[in-house]
Amino acid sequence: MLSKDDVLGVSKLARLKLTDEQVDKFKLQMENVLELFDEVKNINVDNIEETSQVSGLKNITREDEIEYNNDLRPDSSNDLLANTPRRECTKIIVPKVIEGK
Amino acid sequence: MNLYELTIEEASTQLASGKITSLDLTNSVLERIENIDGKIKAYLKVLKDESTEQAKMSDERRASGKTLGPLDGIPICLKDLICLKGCETTASSNILKGFVPPYDSTVANKLKKAGAVIIGKTNCDAFAHGSSTENSDFFVTKNPWDLEKIPGGSSGGSAAATSADECIGAIGTDTGGSIRQPASLCGVVGLKPTYGRVSRYGVVAMASSLDVVGPIVKSVKDSAMVLEAIAGKDELDSTTLDVEVPKYSELIKKVTKIRVGIPKEYFAEGTDKDVLEEINKSIEILKDAGAEIVDISLPSTDYAISLYYIIQPAEVSSNLAKYDGIRFGYSTLRDDSNQTLEDVYFNSRGTGFGSEAKRRIMLGSYVLSAGYYDAYYRKAMKLRTLVIKDFEKAFEKVDVILGPVSPTPAFKIGEKTDDPVQMYLSDIFTAPINPAGVPAMSLPVGFVKRDGKDLPVGLQLIAPMLGEQIIFDTAYTIEQALNLNKKPQL
Fold first, then answer.
1. Are B216 and B245 in contact (CB under 8 A)?
2. Which of A33, B157, B415, B472 has the highest Cβ tally under 10 A?
3. Does the pLDDT value for residue A39 go beyond 90?
4. Are residues B23 and B146 both part of a single domain?
5. Domain residue limits at B359
6. Distance CA B344, CA A89 (A)
7. B290-323, pLDDT tens digit by residue?
8. Contacts of B379 (CB under 8 A, 6+ apart)
């Protein structure tokens, strides 16, 4: 079963601020969901390969060249940055991450 | 008959013969939305001016002999996960409120190039997390057959709009049943194409190894017509398959001697008896057509829902990590620049995400975290291999698999909102399909009476990878024999 600290630990990993009420609620609900997963515990998967996706494709590459003629690319960096919370021209402003002068 | 009731095929024929114009059709749909969407609440946004303009352009193209094909002039709505350039796209989430995509998704672009009129954006569970559309951060969509019931989810808005004739066709997305289950509960045709058949470029990601885009429409033929228009290789989505797209709608024919697999796990206890009775009628139709009915077993059905609810939240937690309050979407930085980077992350995500998104991010982070990764995530990836093998084995013996879409008809609004496990279990027959990647359709086949109202029942048809044509053919055979023409009373 999960402890309250487990839930808080996961919320830190996930960068989610939760209220006390949410922590209690999620603890209970996550326990219930994890209980559902108990049924897979006893299934033998020795020597079974892992599948992460089913397209059968891998390593799709292309030349590292800018395409100017694709009508599905944004028209300009200005358009692309229009949704940015804080910016100066084409630069995104982020809070200071390194302390000191 | 009102124009808004037409199928894509019917509307296309009438447009081609000059009997109607796209403007007539579009106005009829817009008027229908105005009259009834207050009750249904399928739409987040109706593009009245833009769609009128597109309809006029379609009519002009037709008048000058430059029509773009069978979808030219047909009003189609998009689930709000699908980016439409210049039009707010929120995935029904608060964290994306106000987000205006600077580009079209490939699917929107393909529809535009086919001449379709984009009529609006439809409601869904936020980020497609849900089976009832109750997880929309904005409002709940109602089932047109009974306004007290959920329309299913997550593409509940697209399914309800199609069912209530608030569009001629719709686009949805399906990660674990999000096209098929609402189509089933609303009585319309929903297709989950093969993984990689349709580009996801510009579609808000939920779980990238499972997500597909597909049509929610009023007939099997319509489903084929839309898939033809939106499928295909896209260099902007490297998971798309480089396989030619057949002319499904022209190839559609009734089936005779096919082998139809009936998985015993789908007909076990726990599935509503009345639902199964409707499903069984369709089995009889196929038998009469000459099909061989084969009893099969998909043992992985019993645990597939568990592996789905491990893999899916794991991928959700990873995909939703991009909502950091720095680059786009809801951000506490907009009002308060005096925060640390960590504050911006924690506060923006804490306020911006709704309960279900948080729950899935938490679950996903948990199953991926050190100490639990092997027990949950790695194990689920191995079980996924077993699910795939189950289907491969079944398809050695049969051409198509048949069963219910949902174990019950539409349930009451509010009935399962506080119990995530019960909500998750409503995906029990749809969720196993996505990890295997195979295509599947929900086809309306009948009704059950609940609380004095008729509620639709959907039949699920599952085919091998890229086996969409066999699904269309089988569904078409059943559809033509049933000839259901009941509409919700609104």
1. no
2. B157
3. no
4. yes
5. 302-381
6. 21
7. 999 999 999 999 899 999 999 999 999 999 999 9
8. A40, A45, B307, B310
Q: Alpha helix locations (H) across B74-209?
A: 106-113, 156-163, 180-186
Assess whether B244 and B326 both reside in one domain.
Answer: no
Q: Where are the domains of chain A?
A: 4-40
Check B350 against A18: CB less than 8 A apart: yes
pLDDT at site A60: 87
Q: How confident is the model at residue B422 (pLDDT cuts 50, 70, 90)?
A: confident
The predicted-structure confidence for B390-414, as pLDDT tens digits, reads as follows 999 999 999 999 999 999 999 999 9
Residues B231 and B343 in one domain: no
Fold of the A4-40 domain: Histone, subunit A (1.10.20)
CA angle B213, B214, B220 (to 5 degrees): 170
Q: Which of B22, B41, B58, B79 is catalytic?
A: B79
Which band of pLDDT confidence, cut at 50, 70 and 90, is reported for residue A68?
A: low
Q: What is the tally of structural domains in chain B?
A: 2
Q: Which two tokens stand for residue B237?
A: 């989505």
Taking contacts as CB-CB distances below 8 angstroms, the residues of chain A near B310 are 37, 40
Q: Which of the two residues, B351 and A1, has the higher pLDDT score?
A: B351
Q: Does B366 sit within 8 Å of A55, measured CB to CB?
A: no
Answer for the pair B30, B49: CB distance below 8 angstroms, yes or no: no
Whether B184 is a known active-site residue: answer: no
- Average pLDDT score over residue span A65-93: 81
Contact assignment for A14 to B362 by CB distance below 8 Å: yes
Contacts of A67 in chain B (CB under 8 A): none
**CATH number of the domain within which B141 lies:** 3.90.1300.10
Residues of A in contact with B307 (CB under 8 A): 40
CB contact under 8 A, B359 and A30: yes
Q: Do B38 and B159 lie in a common domain?
A: yes
